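An example makes the point: we print one protein in full, the chain in one-letter code, the fold tokenised, without further comment:
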Amino acid sequence: MSNPGIPLHAIAPKSASRAAYAPLTDQHHSKSQGDDDRTPGRASMHSGALSRSAAAVRSTTRGFGGGRSAKGKGKQREQYADESDEEATLLLGHVEEGADGDPDGDDEGDIGGEGQGSTRLKRLEGSQVAGRSSTLTRAGSKGRQDKSRTIPFRPPEKFQSRFPPNIVRNQKYNIFTFFPVVLYEQFKFFFNLYFLLVALSQFIPALKIGFIITYVAPLAFVLCVTMGKEAYDDYKRNLRDREANSQKYLILVPPSASHPHMGFRSPESLALFDVADPELQEHSQTQPDSGPHTRSVPSSSLKIGDLVLLEKNDRVPADMVLLRTSDPSGTCFIRTDQLDGETDWKARVAVSATQNLKGGEREIMLLDGEVYADSPIKDIHNFVGTITVHPRSVSGHTDESSSPTMEALSAENMLWANTVLAAGSAVGFVVYSGGETRAVMNTSHPVTKVGLLDLEINRLAKILCAVTFALSVVLVALNGFRGLWYIYVFRFLILFSSIIPISLRVNLDMGKTVYAQQIMSDSEIPGTIVRTSTLPEELGRIEYLLSDKTGTLTQNEMEMKKLHMGTISYGFDSMDEVAHQLAMAFGAEQGAKSGSIATGAQLAARGRRDMSSRLRDVVLSLALCHNVTPVTNDDGTITYQASSPDEVAIVKWTESVGLTLIARDRSSITLQTPTGSSLNYDILELFPFTSESKRMSIVVRETHTGDILFLQKGADVVMARIVQKNDWLEEETGNMAREGLRTLVVGRKRLTSLHYAAFKQRHHEAGVKTDGRNEAMTAVVSEYLERDLELLGLTGVEDKLQDEVKSSLELLRNAGIKIWMLTGDKIETARCIAISTKLVARNQYIHEVAKLKTSEQVRDQLEFLQSKLDCCLVIDGDSLQLCLNLYKNEFIEITTKLSAVVACRCSPTQKADVARLIRQYTKKRVCCIGDGGNDVSMIQAADVGVGIVGKEGKQASLAADFSVTQFSHLTKLLMWHGRNSYRRSAKLAQFVIHRGLIISVMQAVFSAIFYFAPIALYQGWLMIGYATIYTMAPVFSLVLDRDVNEDLALIYPELYKELTKGRALSYKTFFQWLMISVYQGAAIMIMSLLLFENEFLNIVSISFTSLIMNELIMVALEITTWHTYMVISEVVTLFMYVTSIAFLPEYFDLEFVVSTRFAWKVALIVAISALPLYVIKLIRSRIAPAASSKLL
């Protein structure tokens, strides 16, 4: 029997084409029914429960196929045809064959009996897995890639196990991968690998030089510190994961599952249980069952198809369809701040078919139906799915007179994982779990960040290694490659290993610790935490700053600041006058006992509407035209919730002037006037705000008088052509926008009941069209309602900025940093904030790019931008994605030259992609700053991630490298701490390399003179002392040096531009230090050999003392600003060296050391090695002084 009456018209394709329905290709089916049964538009439906279920799967397939084709996604629809075949096979077990191999599936034995249920269960659990796998094989790669799913209510475990477990895992390592991965991360740097090889060489007797501990200890120390830190960080991540995974949730379980005689039933047989089921009736009489059974399970045990009961303030553990809420209207509010960064609550709507069930949760448990969900994607604003509910009859037969109810599902029916239920309770049906949830797909795993300075030093280490090897080969070659020359090459390599000193790594790591401590103890930026201590130098090299908007630049606290009514304007300080006028208007009205609209009408007719009446109209319109719901809290207080904080601000303002919103549901609004009386309005129509329409409107009818009003508010660009002609709107909107206020134009139109009835008829006709429905409905609204609206007023709402945001952004711009604002908010809002924060300079042209669809449009926009690089670009998320897909390199090349870019409606992944692209294309340092869970991916993708501890929680702060309490602290962090960290580390690194080079040059000169023998010049304690107590303190004191003081660094941000050029540590400065080392090493060694008297011991004492004195003087020459610790370190080190001479008689002849001959020889050598450098430094400071020295 054919049944064409299945109500699929709402989402059906334009024509009943075969392609649109994606028919199943079941061999059994085709054998029994022939080709005719598969003609388009027909669904062959057998009587009996099994056949009904088969048709249900088909109807779902068809319904969805049609919806998808309407959206132009033919390719994905074809994939679903394969998938639906698999689902039918899996769930129904070749149902067309019926119970006993009967092709028609006769009714006998098909009414959910025990035996039949068991048979079905065996099929489900056994052969259908094989059936599915064979189908999968046939489907090929296309079927495997498609992850869409049709999930029945109460699915079997085998079906559930095909989907990822609902486990949160942010750990980087496990017990097996920890050591290999950490060691790889360390030794992938040539720097560390070189030290490891040198340390291992000391275990070979032929290569052993000096104490093994001098080579092994520093490397072991560095590795232990690094591994300890990584282990601790990962342990903390593990604790957070465990806490999230063990959070308990209530899931609904079928009441029949606890019946001792019933055992386990298959989903189909359970679905047939009804109040009229005799076994259930008997069970309910003997054991009354008040409601559904619930079981508490940890978050990690939730599976696809589970029904989860959520209470207020529960975190949503997986992506689920909202089936039912405690609110009779079927709405609930969720907080999405950890997903999209917006702190305002979002309304979600339950599926009407399940919300309206009389039996509540118990009835949901017994539903027979399935949910189709599209393949998991990252987009949190879109969802494609359907829910099909089958009618049930007493006997289990399909009710011929009724057909399955199908509803389309969209993002407003979805509760995404990591959002929080803000009020009431709800029941959700899990459709995506674990790694397939939107939250996880939008989160990138943290990677180990390495600073640019470390990479530069790694490159220099390679050059030094090449120099060492070349020097070793040259010395062996000059000796004529005699004897075991290859052994001599290795011995020379080890002798010269101090050229790349392991102490460099130790010094730099200790320096980073000092910088981190200085940042955290800075009283001017309290609460700042350094979470990644390896990156402070990066703060001095930032060229691009990517910032979130909500909560980062703004406080996300809206406040109504201005109301303009054409002839009069009310500012923030004159709102008490508004309240007074409003009280007068409502008081006069009550005294006159006249209808609220009639008063305005009479005055309008005379053309002399007094101010209080005009004010009453505009305030009343603002109090009615919105989507705000008052929510009563546990303590009795009322908070307003809406998807836009602007609307909440306006409703709070109407309350402050005396007109209070006290109740709101989907069909009515109740207001309280200043006099205490109530105004009741019925909501007839509601047209919500969209980014396309840029306006929202409402049609209300006053319950008392029956007067119908059309009220509308929206952006001035669209409202200007809808309201009546006027001479003030454009000018005043411009004035408010320059102040950074978000403007909304308010208009109104009175409707007669006949006019509204005509509109309603035409609007309904447009609503049932399958072709161009949205355009038709919009046209009807425009024709009947949006014509000649009475302009009531203009509102200005301020989004409060964070403290000192304007001055901070200006300072960062002056420092040469290009600023991008990436936000999930609307274009209009982002544009206002860009102006109010002075991200956009005064009178700078703002170029808006939105709704791009084709490559030609993208190319045109890019060509325009290329010709106007001084503008600010404002682009929406979809257009941004299109630009990146089609013209990635061109887009990044052009936009990175712009002074400011604002990207709106960005998903968390898009933010991270933009950060990565800028890094890859420009090779510059990128800093990202944000405060919400949606900013985590961006923060992790940046070279430097800064998290703000804000209202949206600590998720961004915990994931960041640096955590601050407000945006303005970033200036001090970059301009002062970043500057110091980079300059100090650059100077420290080069000095430590110089310290190693100079002693290696002396060793080379010594070996060359003494017949190229690979014999150590200094051995044992002298080498240990040279790397530690004799030079370490003075050299390390360079981490306290500074070239300018703090005030100058912040007053002249232009100084920061110099740092970004990377001149403090470059090949040029490196080769300068290389030449200094070669000169000084050669000078000290040659002069020592010339001046030595008659013993080898004298060469050692003269040269080593000269070397130590030379290093102390070089540190003094390098210091720009002396610090107390520097003076102490120099004096104490000299004292320790002199004292230690007495305890090292094997290296020093004490009688010679205390003589004047020793003193003048050392003085002469030091003068020759250090004096020329002092003279050169003096001359350079006069001829080409540094930019900073000009300010001192």
In short: The chain is about 50% helix and 15% strand. The chain has a mean pLDDT of 79. Residues 518 and 815 are 22 Å apart (CA to CA).
